[in-house]
Amino acid sequence: MMTPQQIEYVLAVAEERSFSKAAKRLFVTQPSLSKFIINLENSLGVMLFDRSSSPITITEAGNIFIETANRMKALEEDMSLKLSDLVGMRNGTLKIGTSTFYSANMLTKTVVQFHKRYPDIQISIYEDSSGNLEELISRGELDIIIGNSVVDNELYNAEELCDERMYLAVPYDREVNKSLTDFAFSANDIKTNSEKLFMNKFVSLDTFKNERFIFYNNTDYRCQIAKKICRNAGFTPFVAFRSNSIETIFSFVRQGIGAAFVPDTYVKFVDMSNHPVYYAIDNFEPEGNIKLIYKKNKYLSRAAVEFCNILRALIGMGTWK
Asked: Is residue 229 helix, strand or coil?
């Protein structure tokens, strides 16, 4: 029978691939952690970790132990959630993963309403990149993700909450804008869903082939989409800067560093007067979806269910539009 301490210590070493890093994370000394793992290995009669390489690797026996430990950890968490639900949501936690932008601009009303109804539930919001959030939810460290990740449908439920349309944002002072006035959209067009927005005036992306671009980092799926549409337009973009932050990317566009693909949600929620020029791009499907993501076959707490219900209701009322 695994003890909670054995599960915690082995998983920490497996995730860090280092006894010293795991010891710091666990607030124990490295010698005591090493001795603990050695004693566990001796009692099991197998080696869990191969220490001959750096970083250390997990043995076949170690993988079996870790797989079982994760299942036991998930079962314990499910039990805690169910017991918490029995006492009428008078305690418990809700762990939400999302981007910094969505957290600051699009979840505020939902969080406020939820807290008013259930003041004893502790809410933790983890703001990180899509890849890191997916890793956290796969380990059971998040209840839900709100974002635009592309996830494995066999492992996750991904419920579409609302559309998100991408536009090419070009610095206001660019010479190319002078010949494209009939195709340009203002921030106000996007914020008010003006009639001009739906007149299907598209610009070919190769019009901007000599422009410097600002992309998301390579690990973000939006970077791969941007690369693909540039290839389809017949050119390889010069990428001047990369960032995982839409706030940073948008700031660089406003400073005249380069052009970037920007979601309409950001244009609608950002509070500033100095905007770039926006274009709808031809031969590009610029639609995306903001999704509610949670693991299949995992108990979703009543707190998580109630939060999702409040979120859906507010979106239906136009909070995100």
From this structure: helix
> To the nearest whole percent, how much of the chain has pLDDT over 90?
40
Q: How many other C-beta atoms can be found within 10 angstroms of the C-beta atom of residue 310?
A: 19
Topology of the domain comprising 164-287:
D-Maltodextrin-Binding Protein; domain 2 (3.40.190)
Mean pLDDT of the chain: 86
Residue 96: pLDDT over 70? yes
Query: How far, in Å, are 9, 10, 145, 246 from residue 48 at the CA level?
Result: 12, 9, 32, 42
Instruction: Read off the pTM.
Output: 0.65
Residue 146 forms beta bridges with which residues? Answer: 98, 292
Higher pLDDT: 319 or 206? It is 206
Classify domain 86-161+289-316 at the CATH topology level: D-Maltodextrin-Binding Protein; domain 2 (3.40.190)
Please tell me if the domain spanning 86-161+289-316 has the same topology as the one spanning 164-287.
Answer: yes
How far from 108 is each of 40, 104, 230, 303, CA to CA, in Å?
46, 6, 35, 17
Burial class (CB in 10 A: 0-12, 13-18, 19+), 198: exposed
Q: At a CB cut-off of 8 Å and minimum separation 6, what does 27 contact?
A: none
Confidence of residue 139 (pLDDT cuts 50, 70, 90): confident
